[in-house]
């Protein structure tokens, strides 16, 4: 019963097959290969637009930091939630890649930015006041670090507030597929149609071996050459990019990434229902995706611990359990028996 993280899950067999399928012959380096070209066609289908440029990374931290560095100068700030991955889990990578950019942390329930706090932060931007650091970017996360999902309408609303103030809008989509399944929105509806300028679309947590896509929409495309230069300088220009592109193509084929996210989300609902069955275990946040945040009853915590289940303690005495595309029915059945 391993509920540690979806990054602990294996790659989907179709991804491994895709890697083997491109592992022959010679191909141009650094994204000039035919496989990466085919990925652009696939992204055009998935995103319902061809007005974008993209770059591939093997790490979500690199994808976020590289993307943000193109839009936040060293003397600027990035508005984000105080529990955002870029703030809590990336070891100052955004600050490092921007050359000193500041993260301006905002509160909000369920790791979703509070609108009043956002409005106050935007209203407080003073570009010409030398003593403060003006914001240049708003960064949202979907799913959030508390496993909750911003609906497309909320993303669009927050994006509009930011754009009215001249900010670029970034979306950290490490669990983008899980958010899409939860909200019922299309990739377009919750990204460029909602005002997102730059999306870091993660596939690793969904079932890839290691594949993150930085996508620049519309006018943000003017930063593409800078993005490539920054990637090269930071050591994130994969010479054999076709192996990353092949993973993404396999995930997008037949909407596999969405079906895998659907399975992960469903397993999370099943796990949360079983945990809360005793009437004493309480959910800390709604289960919108594949993460469960709970305050476990003493008996449930003891049962899970003694059974050797893998999960993590979390903020405020709660615990986090994460399901994945390959969490089997046998695990759900065993959990049900254990908690009974």
Automatic annotation (TrEMBL):
Its cofactor is pyridoxal 5'-phosphate. The keyword ATP-binding does not apply. Gene3D superfamilies: Aspartate Aminotransferase, domain 1, Type I PLP-dependent aspartate aminotransferase-like (Major domain). Residues 3-296 form the Aromatic amino acid beta-eliminating lyase/threonine aldolase domain. Keywords: Pyridoxal phosphate. Belongs to the threonine aldolase family. Homotetramer. This is Threonine aldolase.
């Amino acid at each position: 019963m391993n509920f540690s993280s979806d990054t602990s899950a294996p790659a989907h067999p179709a991804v491994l097959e895709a890697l083997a399928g491109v592992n022959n012959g010679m191909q141009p380096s650094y994204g000039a290969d035919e496989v990466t070209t085919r990925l652009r066609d696939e992204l055009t289908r998935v995103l319902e637009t061809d007005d974008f440029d993209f770059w591939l990374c093997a790490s979500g931290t690199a994808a976020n930091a590289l993307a943000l560095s193109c839009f936040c100068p060293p003397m600027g700030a990035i508005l984000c939630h105080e529990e955002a991955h870029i703030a809590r889990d990336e070891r100052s990578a955004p600050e490092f890649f921007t050359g000193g950019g500041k993260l301006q942390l905002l509160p909000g329930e369920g790791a979703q930015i509070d609108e009043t706090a956002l409005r106050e932060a935007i209203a407080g931007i003073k570009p010409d006041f030398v003593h403060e650091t003006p914001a240049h970017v708003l960064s949202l996360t979907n799913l959030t670090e508390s496993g909750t999902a911003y609906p497309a309408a909320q993303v669009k609303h927050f994006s509009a507030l930011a754009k009215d103030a001249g900010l670029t809008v970034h979306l950290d989509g490490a669990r983008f597929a899980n958010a899409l399944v939860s909200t019922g929105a299309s990739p377009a509806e919750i990204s460029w149609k909602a005002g997102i300028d730059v999306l870091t679309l993660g596939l690793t947590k969904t079932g890839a071996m290691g594949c993150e896509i930085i996508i620049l929409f519309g006018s943000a495309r003017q930063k593409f050459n800078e993005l490539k230069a920054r990637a090269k300088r930071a050591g994130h220009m994969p010479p054999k990019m076709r192996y990353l592109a092949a993973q993404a193509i396999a995930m997008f084929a037949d909407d596999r990434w969405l079906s895998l996210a659907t399975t992960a989300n469903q397993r999370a609902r099943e796990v949360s229902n079983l945990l809360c069955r005793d009437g004493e275990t309480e959910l800390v946040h709604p289960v919108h995706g594949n993460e469960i945040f709970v305050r476990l009853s003493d008996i449930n915590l003891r049962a899970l611990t003694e059974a050797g289940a893998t999960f993590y303690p979390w903020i405020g005495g709660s615990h986090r359990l994460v399901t994945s595309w390959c969490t089997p029915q046998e695990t759900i059945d065993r959990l049900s028996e254990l908690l009974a």
